[in-house]
Amino acid sequence: MAKKHGMDKDGWIKVCGYEPGEGMVCDYMRPPQLKGIEDNNGWNIITDDLEFTTEIFWLYNSSNIDLFRGRLFDDDKLPIHRYATHYQPIEKPKPPIY
After folding, report:
1. What is the SS3 assignment for the chain?
2. Distance (Å, whole) CA 13 – CA 34
3. Does 74 have pLDDT greater than 80?
4. Per-residue pLDDT at 4 exceeds 60
5. Angstrom distance (rounded) from CA 14 to CA 4
6. Would you tell me how many other CB atoms lie within 10 Å of the CB of residue 87?
7. Which residue, among 61, 13, 93, has the nearest Cα to 3 in the 3D structure?
8. Mean pLDDT, residues 4-19 taken together
9. Residue-range domain boundaries for the chain
10. Would you say the pTM of this structure is higher than 0.85?
11. Largest CA distance in the chain
12. pLDDT in tens, 39-56
Protein backbone atom coordinates (compact mmCIF):
# COMPACT_ATOMS: atom_id res chain seq x y z
CA MET A 1 0.00 0.00 0.00
CA ALA A 2 1.56 3.32 -1.05
CA LYS A 3 1.09 6.13 1.49
CA LYS A 4 1.14 9.90 1.23
CA HIS A 5 1.94 11.90 4.38
CA GLY A 6 1.32 15.50 5.40
CA MET A 7 1.27 17.21 8.82
CA ASP A 8 -0.88 20.17 9.86
CA LYS A 9 0.10 22.87 12.38
CA ASP A 10 -1.24 20.87 15.35
CA GLY A 11 0.77 17.79 14.45
CA TRP A 12 -2.01 15.71 12.90
CA ILE A 13 -0.83 13.54 10.04
CA LYS A 14 -3.17 12.53 7.24
CA VAL A 15 -2.24 9.09 5.98
CA CYS A 16 -3.89 7.94 2.75
CA GLY A 17 -3.49 4.77 0.81
CA TYR A 18 -5.22 2.52 -1.65
CA GLU A 19 -6.98 -0.52 -0.23
CA PRO A 20 -8.06 -3.21 -2.69
CA GLY A 21 -11.85 -3.34 -2.88
CA GLU A 22 -12.22 -0.06 -0.94
CA GLY A 23 -10.30 2.45 -3.04
CA MET A 24 -8.54 5.42 -1.46
CA VAL A 25 -8.71 5.31 2.36
CA CYS A 26 -7.48 8.16 4.61
CA ASP A 27 -7.02 8.36 8.35
CA TYR A 28 -5.61 10.92 10.80
CA MET A 29 -3.09 10.21 13.51
CA ARG A 30 -0.74 12.18 15.74
CA PRO A 31 2.36 11.07 17.62
CA PRO A 32 1.62 10.81 21.36
CA GLN A 33 4.62 13.07 22.08
CA LEU A 34 2.61 16.02 20.68
CA LYS A 35 -0.19 15.75 23.26
CA GLY A 36 -0.94 19.22 24.65
CA ILE A 37 0.32 21.15 21.62
CA GLU A 38 -3.04 22.91 21.11
CA ASP A 39 -2.87 24.82 24.40
CA ASN A 40 0.89 24.58 25.21
CA ASN A 41 -0.02 22.31 28.15
CA GLY A 42 -1.91 25.23 29.73
CA TRP A 43 1.08 27.62 29.76
CA ASN A 44 0.72 31.24 28.59
CA ILE A 45 3.57 33.45 27.42
CA ILE A 46 4.28 36.52 29.56
CA THR A 47 3.80 39.81 27.71
CA ASP A 48 3.75 43.34 29.10
CA ASP A 49 0.08 43.97 28.26
CA LEU A 50 -1.46 41.17 30.35
CA GLU A 51 -4.45 41.69 32.61
CA PHE A 52 -4.68 39.13 35.40
CA THR A 53 -7.65 37.97 37.43
CA THR A 54 -5.58 36.06 39.99
CA GLU A 55 -2.46 36.67 42.06
CA ILE A 56 -1.22 33.09 42.31
CA PHE A 57 0.74 31.61 39.42
CA TRP A 58 3.04 28.87 38.36
CA LEU A 59 6.03 30.50 36.67
CA TYR A 60 8.36 28.83 34.18
CA ASN A 61 11.87 30.07 33.36
CA SER A 62 13.43 27.38 31.12
CA SER A 63 14.84 25.39 34.03
CA ASN A 64 12.34 25.64 36.90
CA ILE A 65 8.63 25.70 37.61
CA ASP A 66 7.97 27.74 40.75
CA LEU A 67 4.85 28.72 42.66
CA PHE A 68 4.52 32.50 42.89
CA ARG A 69 2.08 34.74 44.75
CA GLY A 70 1.92 38.42 43.93
CA ARG A 71 2.12 40.68 40.91
CA LEU A 72 4.07 39.75 37.81
CA PHE A 73 4.91 43.40 36.99
CA ASP A 74 6.05 46.33 39.11
CA ASP A 75 4.51 49.82 38.90
CA ASP A 76 6.63 50.61 35.82
CA LYS A 77 5.24 47.50 34.03
CA LEU A 78 8.60 45.75 34.30
CA PRO A 79 8.56 42.04 35.07
CA ILE A 80 9.31 41.26 38.71
CA HIS A 81 10.72 37.87 37.73
CA ARG A 82 12.70 38.86 34.67
CA TYR A 83 13.72 35.33 33.69
CA ALA A 84 10.20 33.91 33.73
CA THR A 85 8.83 33.32 30.23
CA HIS A 86 5.48 31.59 30.84
CA TYR A 87 2.78 31.46 33.51
CA GLN A 88 -0.20 29.35 34.53
CA PRO A 89 -2.79 31.07 36.73
CA ILE A 90 -4.13 29.16 39.71
CA GLU A 91 -7.79 30.03 40.10
CA LYS A 92 -9.39 30.15 43.54
CA PRO A 93 -11.64 27.08 43.81
CA LYS A 94 -15.40 27.43 44.11
CA PRO A 95 -16.91 26.61 47.53
CA PRO A 96 -18.35 23.14 48.06
CA ILE A 97 -21.98 22.51 47.12
CA TYR A 98 -22.71 20.27 50.13
Report:
1. CCEECCECCCCCEEEEEEECCCEEEEEEECCHHHCCCCCHHHCEECCCCCCCCCCEEEEECCCCEEEEECCCECCCCCECCCCCCEEEECCCCCCCCC
2. 11
3. no
4. no
5. 8
6. 21
7. 13
8. 75
9. 3-34, 40-89
10. no
11. 70
12. 888 888 877 666 665 677
